[in-house]
Amino acid sequence: xxxxxxxxxxxPWLYAISGSILRWLLPITLLALFVGAAWGLLFTAPDFRxxxxxxxxxxxxPTSVVxxxxxxxxxxxxxxxxxxxxxxxxxxxxxxxxxxxxxTFTALLTGGIWGEPTWGTWWVWDGRxxxxxxxxxxxxxxxxLYEAYDNKEAASKACAVLSLVxxxxxxIIYKSVDxxxxxxxxxSIKFTGESAIDSSMLYPLxxxxxxxxxxxxxxxxxxxxxxxxxxxxxxxxxxxxxxxxGDS
Amino acid sequence: xxxxxxAGFFLRLLRRQLVLALRRPIEIINPLLFFAIVMALFPLxxxxxxxxxxxxxxxxLWIIALxxxxxxxxxVFRGDFEDGSLExxxxxxxxxxxxxxxxSTAHWLTTGLLLALVSPVFALMLNLPASAIPALAAxxxxxxxxxxxxxxxxxxxTVGLKRGxxxxxxxxxxLYVPVLIFGSAAVRGAVEGIPVAPYLxxxxxxxxxxxxxxxxxxxxxLRISLDA
Lengths: 248, 228
Hints:
The complex is a heterodimer. Chain A is mainly alpha-helical. Chain A contains nine helices and no strands.
């Protein structure tokens, strides 16, 4: 187990293994996205009250779920890099921030588009929308702080501290719907007890959530690979890699 | 001269910060002037009708206090970073956790506490009902402590950067949000006659959490900034 942990800290090993993971994960992700989107958008019955407008759930819920999970991943990677000084955790944290920001933005945008026909407004200042907006600012803060430092190693550490401080916000987001209940409904999918959503709509939704998790993983790995190449551009193995690519 | 013990060291550090602040009184008066001037903008922008002002007063007063804390927190470590005394502090054998806590305490004493003390005057000018004034002062008293601690985190992370000014607002304001929600809710609750104690209890809980955790982040931030 420990040798695996040590290998994780080695850039060439991580570059190679992420390449072979991507080779099969990327096609599966695209297939799952395609099947899930087609199933949800074309082959499920319209909602009896919201008609066809509810179908944006297949984008809105997965992006919201993954944007929150991505913050945890970023903070945990930050903690690992601060505690064990693992360079690759730095890279993972740095790579997560822009993806998380994009997912949060998409969740807010689709939420607004969904809210217009169903609630009659693009935006409400209730707990959940407000805290998602704050989550977006936290992501953007991490990106901006990283860009502000010239010394990228210090930048990663500073971002790790900031993302750990920001984790205080995540439980507030999770609980906000119970605390400041207004227009946004509480979560419909429950792991224990019966879900408040029909199974014909639930299965494509679950498929889309899995597909978005996979999509996030693919984006994260691709981002990390680019970052690794950039950071290690002066080392022998990268030169060798570039030379071998050049020959073939 | 004997070397001071740990408690003595932090008392001296606190006294040093306060003496430094008192030597330049304009730095202490500036946040209060800022508070007064921004407060004077609202009747001009919203119209001078007493009812409108009273309805907006809890949020307005809290937001101005928050901005005053934000603007002053940027310079908490600036001077000591530039003249090298921050580096000496990091090299000293005293725990950095308490030094960080001392810096935020000094910042709170020179901004937040004063804002809480003068806020009743501004509350009267904005026509806030007299029954809500104790709640305003109490919520500012507790809340600005949290704001100082969070502001010090932002200041520690950006002290080594040339253009820290805009960046610190992006880092710190999202973290200020819960404090603003509960602080202004306490004042609004007092206006409507709802018990204020639960809100103050939540602010107190956040302050305790902040005292326990924020100095760790400040210390880590200072180490990173001085290494860079």
